[in-house]
Amino acid sequence: MRGVLLAAMCTLLAGCPSLLVKPDPIAAQCNPIGWEQCQSRARWDADASSASAWDALAETLEESRAETRQCEIRRKALEQCLRRLEAQGVINP
Rounded CA gap, 71 and 10, in Å? Predict the structure, then answer.
Protein backbone atom coordinates (compact mmCIF):
# COMPACT_ATOMS: atom_id res chain seq x y z
CA MET A 1 0.00 0.00 0.00
CA ARG A 2 2.82 2.33 0.90
CA GLY A 3 4.51 1.62 -2.45
CA VAL A 4 1.35 2.46 -4.40
CA LEU A 5 0.94 5.70 -2.47
CA LEU A 6 4.58 6.61 -3.10
CA ALA A 7 4.24 5.84 -6.82
CA ALA A 8 1.06 7.92 -7.08
CA MET A 9 2.71 10.84 -5.27
CA CYS A 10 5.76 10.73 -7.56
CA THR A 11 3.51 10.63 -10.62
CA LEU A 12 1.54 13.67 -9.43
CA LEU A 13 4.66 15.64 -8.55
CA ALA A 14 6.28 14.86 -11.90
CA GLY A 15 3.57 16.91 -13.63
CA CYS A 16 3.98 20.01 -11.42
CA PRO A 17 6.76 21.75 -13.37
CA SER A 18 4.66 21.74 -16.55
CA LEU A 19 1.96 23.66 -14.68
CA LEU A 20 4.40 26.27 -13.42
CA VAL A 21 6.48 26.79 -16.56
CA LYS A 22 4.86 28.52 -19.53
CA PRO A 23 5.58 27.01 -22.95
CA ASP A 24 7.77 28.83 -25.43
CA PRO A 25 5.86 31.24 -27.66
CA ILE A 26 5.02 30.01 -31.13
CA ALA A 27 5.65 32.01 -34.25
CA ALA A 28 2.56 33.75 -35.59
CA GLN A 29 1.93 32.84 -39.21
CA CYS A 30 -0.13 35.90 -40.19
CA ASN A 31 0.57 37.52 -43.55
CA PRO A 32 1.97 41.01 -42.83
CA ILE A 33 0.73 42.42 -46.14
CA GLY A 34 -2.48 43.36 -44.34
CA TRP A 35 -0.60 46.09 -42.46
CA GLU A 36 -0.15 48.07 -45.65
CA GLN A 37 -2.35 51.11 -46.03
CA CYS A 38 -5.17 50.71 -48.55
CA GLN A 39 -4.51 53.25 -51.28
CA SER A 40 -5.44 53.01 -54.89
CA ARG A 41 -2.71 53.51 -57.47
CA ALA A 42 -5.24 54.15 -60.23
CA ARG A 43 -5.04 57.73 -61.48
CA TRP A 44 -7.12 59.65 -63.97
CA ASP A 45 -4.88 62.10 -65.78
CA ALA A 46 -6.88 63.32 -68.73
CA ASP A 47 -8.32 66.44 -70.29
CA ALA A 48 -11.78 67.00 -68.80
CA SER A 49 -13.06 68.52 -72.04
CA SER A 50 -12.46 65.31 -74.01
CA ALA A 51 -15.30 62.79 -74.29
CA SER A 52 -12.93 59.82 -74.42
CA ALA A 53 -11.36 60.99 -71.14
CA TRP A 54 -14.71 60.58 -69.41
CA ASP A 55 -14.97 57.05 -70.78
CA ALA A 56 -11.54 56.32 -69.34
CA LEU A 57 -12.73 57.60 -65.96
CA ALA A 58 -15.12 54.65 -65.61
CA GLU A 59 -12.26 52.21 -66.21
CA THR A 60 -10.09 54.06 -63.71
CA LEU A 61 -12.82 53.91 -61.07
CA GLU A 62 -13.26 50.18 -61.60
CA GLU A 63 -9.50 49.64 -61.21
CA SER A 64 -9.55 51.67 -58.02
CA ARG A 65 -12.49 49.68 -56.61
CA ALA A 66 -10.77 46.38 -57.43
CA GLU A 67 -7.54 47.45 -55.71
CA THR A 68 -9.42 48.66 -52.64
CA ARG A 69 -11.45 45.44 -52.51
CA GLN A 70 -8.28 43.31 -52.58
CA CYS A 71 -6.67 45.46 -49.92
CA GLU A 72 -9.70 45.10 -47.65
CA ILE A 73 -9.69 41.33 -48.14
CA ARG A 74 -6.03 41.17 -47.05
CA ARG A 75 -6.74 43.45 -44.08
CA LYS A 76 -9.67 41.32 -42.93
CA ALA A 77 -7.59 38.14 -43.28
CA LEU A 78 -4.90 39.66 -41.05
CA GLU A 79 -7.54 40.74 -38.54
CA GLN A 80 -9.00 37.21 -38.42
CA CYS A 81 -5.54 35.72 -37.95
CA LEU A 82 -4.74 38.09 -35.08
CA ARG A 83 -8.10 37.39 -33.41
CA ARG A 84 -7.48 33.65 -33.72
CA LEU A 85 -4.05 33.99 -32.10
CA GLU A 86 -5.57 36.17 -29.37
CA ALA A 87 -8.26 33.56 -28.68
CA GLN A 88 -5.60 30.85 -28.42
CA GLY A 89 -3.66 32.96 -25.92
CA VAL A 90 -0.64 33.34 -28.18
CA ILE A 91 -0.83 37.16 -28.16
CA ASN A 92 -2.27 39.62 -25.67
CA PRO A 93 -4.70 42.33 -26.80
Answer: 56
Q: Phi-psi region for residue 88, left (φ > 0), alpha (ψ -120 to 50) or beta? A: alpha
- Alpha-carbon distance of 43 to 52, in angstroms, equals 15
d(CA 71, CA 31): 12
Report the pLDDT value the prediction gives residue 93, as an integer from 0 to 100.
Answer: 65
Residue 40, pLDDT > 80, answer: no
CB atoms within 10 A of CB 34: 19
pLDDT at 86: 87
Question: Which pTM does this prediction carry?
Answer: 0.56
**Whether the Cβ atoms of residue 34 and residue 78 lie closer than 8 Å to each other:** yes
The number of C-alpha atoms within 13 Å of 45 and in the hemisphere containing its C-beta is 3
